[in-house]
Amino acid sequence: MTDLKIAALEGHMEAKYVFGMILLCSHDDELRKQGLEYMRFIRKSMCIIKCRNRVKQFVDHLWKGNGMLVRNRIPLCRCKNTCKGRRVKKGVWSFLDDDINLCEYSRWDHEIDFFNWLFDVY
Q1: Which residues form the At2g35280-like TPR domain (predicted)?
Q2: DSSP assignments along 66-86, one per residue
Q3: pTM for the whole structure
């Protein structure tokens, strides 16, 4: 995990994506906030899809099934009754993943769902 953090801090986008997603999956609210900062940086760089696809290419042989990742079932978006973001994004995000009309927390909850699926975290 230390090497991943170092790579993320040195600017490797895929490392930023993975490290940010690991932090977003944490049970610690402060770590989740740090994860949001990493993900916001990647989003502003307009490369969420690219990072996701590159990570997907090597993930099958790396972390699946070793217990390193644990699902946090508490969503970032606590406004499910009023937030429209979860209903809008029920499937895979499009290549235009910067829809500004979505709740940011719903956006990252969706990305966490993908990340958990990618790593077989249940």
Answers
A1: 3-59
A2: SS------S-S---TTT--HH
A3: 0.58
pLDDT bucket at 15, cuts 50 / 70 / 90: very high
What is the reported pLDDT for 65?
Answer: 61
Tokens 């989740």, residue?
A: 32
pLDDT of residue 118: 79
- Phi, psi (rounded to 5 degrees) for 33: -65, -40
Using CA atoms, how far apart are residues 105 and 79, in angstroms rounded to an integer? Answer: 9
For residue 50 the two structure tokens come to 């690219």
Two tokens at 17? 């994506």
Domain residue spans in the chain?
A: 2-118
22-29 contacts at long range (C-beta below 8 A, 24 or more positions apart): 22/69, 24/76, 24/108, 24/111, 24/112, 24/115, 25/69, 25/70, 25/71, 25/72, 25/112, 25/115, 25/116, 25/121, 26/72, 27/72, 27/74
